[in-house]
Amino acid sequence: MFLWYAIKFTHMTFGLVPKVLYPIDMVLTIFSVYKLRAMVNSIVFKIGHVQHIIASKIVCVDQAVRLNFRRDYRNQGIGFGVRY
């Protein structure tokens, strides 16, 4: 879905090779809901055919914020030094 996933390079990697053998275009396979293939310019590194990038929102619950009940202090080290 994002560029965090593994990227496969189908051409040879960069290294100590003559300029004639430098790969001009590389094909990236980006895994998301659909498999998108994009051509990448190796000098400028720009990606084409990316239409939508939607980041997921993370919703979490803060366990430290509670009402002042003594039974909840067991989760916070018996409540010593915990002030509301």
Polypeptide structure, described:
There is one protein chain. This protein is mostly beta strands. It has no helices and 2 strands. It has strands at residues 25-31, 35-41.
Q: How do the SSEs run, as a string of H and E?
A: EE
Number of helices: 0
Number of strands: 2
Q: The biggest beta sheet, please?
A: 2 strands, antiparallel
Radius of gyration, Cα only, in angstroms? 25 Å
Task: Tell me what portion of residues adopts beta-strand conformation.
Answer: 15-25%
Average pLDDT metric = 55
Straight-line N-to-C gap? 41 Å
Poorly predicted runs of 5 or more residues: 24-34
Biggest β-sheet: strands ordered side by side in the sheet: 1-2
CA-based shape: elongated
Which structural class fits the helix and strand makeup? mainly beta
Helical content class: under 10%
Task: Record the SSE blueprint.
Elements lengths: L24 E7 L3 E7 L43
Antiparallel strand pairs: 1-2
Short structural description:
By secondary structure, this protein is mainly beta. The protein has a domain at 17-74.
What are its keywords?
about 0% helix, about 80 residues, mainly beta, 2 strands
